[in-house]
Write a structure and sequence with these properties.
This protein has 91 residues and is mainly alpha-helical. The protein has helices at residues 5-15, 25-45, 50-73, 75-85. It has a single domain (5-85), classed as Helix Hairpins (Orthogonal Bundle). α1 (5-15) crosses α2 and α3 runs antiparallel to α4.
Length: 91
């Protein structure tokens, strides 16, 4: 399931630098984290959904790459995103 428009607007408002900022790494990481949370809940009831599990792994890999990019470019913004999303630091 994709993210609803209302949820995306809320995420952009919380993490974006401008009201219509959907391309910054912070917003992209937050959107991917929301999808990870949804899929995690999905797997609690659908344990054998291996196709969606592969999609989850791709989403996690993309989020990891964006976090790595953000850490390399601006460590302060990286730490802010990590704290807001409550993601543990694996790097």
């Amino acid at each position: 399931m994709s993210i609803t428009k209302e949820k995306k607007v809320e995420i952009v408002k919380d993490f974006g630098r401008e009201p219509d900022d959907t391309g910054s790494p912070e917003v992209q990481i937050a959107i991917l984290s929301d999808r990870v949370g949804y899929l995690t809940e999905h797997f609690k009831t659908h344990k054998k959904d291996y196709h969606s599990r592969m999609g989850l792994l791709k989403i996690i890999a993309k989020r990891r790459k964006l976090l790595k990019y953000l850490r390399r470019k601006d460590i302060r913004r990286y730490k802010t995103v990590i704290a807001k999303l409550n993601i543990r630091d694996k790097f």
